[in-house]
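Model: You mentioned two targets. I'll fold them one after the other.
Researcher: Yes, keep them separate.
Model: Target one:
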Amino acid sequence: MKKRVVVTGMGAITPIGNSVDAFWEGIQQEKIGFDKISYFDASEYKCKIAAQVKDFDPAEYMDKKAARRMEQFCQFAVAASKEALEDAGIDMEKEDAFRVGCSIGNGVGSLQAMEREHTKLVEKGPSKLSPLFVPLVISNMAAGNVSIIFGLKGKNINVVTACATGTNSIGEAFRTIQYGDADIMLAGGTESSITPLGIGGFAALTALSSSEDPKRCSIPFDKDRSGFVMGEGAGIVVLEELEHAKARGAKIYAEVVGYGCSADAFHITSPAEDGSGAATAMLNAVRDAGIQPADITYINAHGTSTHHNDLFETRAIKSAFGDHAKNIKINSTKSMVGHLLGGAGAVEFVACVKEIEEGFIHKTVGLQESEEELDLNYCKESYEEEITYALSNSLGFGGHNASIIVKKYTE
């Protein structure tokens, strides 16, 4: 018998707020996190706008020595993890540390460290490279640092599936608890890649929005969309085996009930044109949850604001749900926070849990008009209604598709 898994804590560092409460307040207020890039001079770059985290001080979450041994993607993960653990009321002195694990993914690692140390190498030679360069740059160090700081000795993994990373990380944590390998898993994703190399590289792919208008740059499902806007931050949740959570009197936000994956096996950057891969992931999640496609009435879409993603994800939803697709409300959190790459699915998972808790489906901000084939309900307005199941999609370069289903908790 697979064990039931519930959400008992959440943490978030995002371009519209550095806590779950601030993030959710921003969502409700339709706040956008887009502005001109301030980390470096982007005047010669094709893309000049990003969704940066504002007013983040690592000293609020960790001591200065620890912060110096982490790059920003790790600092974001530690900060969001601290909030999630405190929210869940986890007391590690009362837990078997080997039954508390960590599944925190990151897509890129630290481009900041790569750029900084490469400059040293070229200008001053190899003897000037930092002895911490490798542990600073590698992507698994978000999970590693979180486990060290909080004393989590259970299963510790770093899933890397590009933009599907956050969803896969939570899904793999869900499976870990389902099959009895942990009682508690800290799970999510983190990213900080707004750098010259990150912006320049994605712009060279023609993946980034060319708009310089913050209100018209990240506009998923809009006919004038021109690419995604790079975001940064972290989303972390505490997943817990139901009986363990009940035994300690934990607050239960929602239940995770379904997880499905697939591969497009089609192209290194483009989703499958017929949407078959993403459709399969969604249906796999539905089957895993033991429900019917008609039970899904809300989808938090991957919705990147690129031409191909939004069109092919629409085809995937139609393929998976048939005529019922017209009844599903579909939105994109990226319309406010941009695309957090490895952190995207995790922050969007937090949004789904809050939407279930509050009975509120947020607007896809900036969406005005879609082209003919994009004829589903992409939430040009917000809705107040009870949500039983929220399905969240994440699709990554390389053809990675991941879908996860969160349910309103009932005994």
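Model: Target two:
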Amino acid sequence: MIIILKKNATPEQIEKLTSDIHALGVSIHKIEGEHTTVFGLVGDTSRINANDLSANEAVEAIHRVQEPYKMANRKFHPENTVIQVGEASFGGDEFPVIAGPCSVESEEQIIEVARAVKASGAKLLRGGAFKPRTSPYAFQGLHEEGIRLLTLAKQDTGLPIVTEIMSIGQLDLFADVDVIQVGARNMQNFELLKALGGTGKPILLKRGLANTLEELLMSAEYIMSAGNEKVILCERGIRTFETATRNTMDLSAIPMLKSMSHLPVIADPSHATGIAWMVEPMARASAAVGADGLIIEVHNNPARALSDGKQSITPAAFDALMKELRPYVELTGKQI
């Protein structure tokens, strides 16, 4: 349930309304927008009589939120949420690009790539320290050493770092990580999501391989209801019957999510297609349909990458892509 307050509501009227709501056993999530103030009621609102609350002089209108996700719902929070990470902001007028290798392989590799992507305009550095792989025999990442090397790259370039967490037991290792990524396989690891709700760090939440948009938003709800509203949604392709690409990139998910939720939405054309030459056209398309940013895999030697070399682009290709993106980003009123 959401309550829209009158613009001329007095502090005394608002205090009375607040007291009445708390007496009903629910909490209030207050959203102050540029033109209006909204109370989002969190808890069991099924027994609340909207007519009784409407009698309060501070109330302009009351609406029930039918969708199961409340805090992630745009009805609950009409204005876009903007999440600041270093010098980049997601969800506003900027279009930040996150770039870096699938896996951190060595100090030389990650620093070389970090310097290259920063020079081309990337605002954050990605790199996998813990790698969830389909095969138990594939490279699983450098673990703690990978995070240490990412930190060195951050010190060298100033780029905030993004890396994926696999379990609650790894949380202490992520103290110096700027954005914690939840991969597709862990999108419904609810205990992990609740734990991330207590971190206060921005969370990059990727859509699962076969999950609906509502299920993605319900996963975001787990994080937000635990106290962390800094959630960035990521469309990274879904599994369909098509085998020509690694996944099927659901471009329609981007504008749909932005209509359903106030949270920033970015796209991952690398995992969505699994093919390096397709990254550039799908990145352009993502920008054109309103994405709030991109996450792209960049490797200095894709042919020798320890993971996902097939979908990684070179620093030179990334530099060209960043130049080509500008007019598509500007179509939606953003600046890269």
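Researcher: Noted. Anything on target two?
Model: The chain has a mean pLDDT of 94.
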